[in-house]
Amino acid sequence: AQLSLLTGNAHAALREIQLAISHEEASGAPMHAIDVLLVTQATAHFRAGDIARADQVIDSALARAPVGRAPIWRTVKAFYAAHHAAVNQRADGVPLMRAFFSGLVRLQHFNAMLFAAPELAWLCARALQCDVEPTFVRELIVRRKFTPSENADQHWPWPLQIEALGQFKVMVYGKPIEFDGKAQKKPMEILHLLTALPDANR
């Protein structure tokens, strides 16, 4: 089921995870041992576009979860709400994004939504555009090596970014490169000059 989610086949994941849950229940597994499977099932519903069902299943997981895992599952529920609101451009999109990302900040949880990485990358790009927890979100993007989503813009921490209009800046993963010595600044001056040349002269 997890492999199906990673490859984007949510419907196959739903079939496979239901078999796994049925097997665990039939074998007499304790309730708290099934919450991880339920969260995987909820994410499969989310990726299949059934947000209402995803919410129902994540609530079931929360009811079964041990104390230590419950805060993580609450961030999953917050993610579903934030992503759905942001994609649909609802007025509560930004507050819901703040609630989700601030929860990750509190937990210092960088492994959130492993099986919904494309959707999380999209939400990260939107959060940066709305100035939602930008420091944490940039670090999350870099740590997870997210592929830039279709809505990524100048706020995204690109591996290399050059700003030639106004103040000249070269940034690596969103952080400006700074040199102290004069010799070290020379390559930057040459790069600045090259960016100012017309295309035919490069």
Keywords:
mainly alpha; three-stranded antiparallel sheet; 9 helices
Describe the structure in your own words.
Helix 3 (35-47) packs antiparallel against helix 4, helix 5 (70-87) runs antiparallel to helix 6 (93-107) and helix 7 (117-129) packs antiparallel against helix 8. The protein has a 3-stranded antiparallel beta sheet, with no helix packed on it. It has 202 residues and is mostly helical. 31% of the residues are buried. It has helices at 2-6, 10-26, 35-47, 51-64, 70-87, 93-107, 117-129, 134-144, 182-196, and strands at 161-163, 169-172, 175-176. It contains 9 helices and 3 strands, in the order ααααααααβββα. The radius of gyration is 21 Å and the shape is elongated. A hairpin with a 5-residue loop joins strand 1 (161-163) and strand 2 (169-172). The termini are far apart.
In round numbers, the mean pLDDT is 87
Q: What is the succession of H and E elements?
A: HHHHHHHHEEEH
Q: State the secondary-structure class.
A: mainly alpha
Model regions low in confidence, pLDDT < 50 over at least 5 residues: none
Anisotropy-based shape: elongated
Please report the total strand number as a whole number: 3
What strand line-up does the widest sheet have? 1-2-3
Number of helices: 9
Strand content: under 5%
Radius of gyration: 21 Å
Note the gap between the termini.
51 Å
The percentage helix is 55-70%
Largest sheet: 3 strands, antiparallel
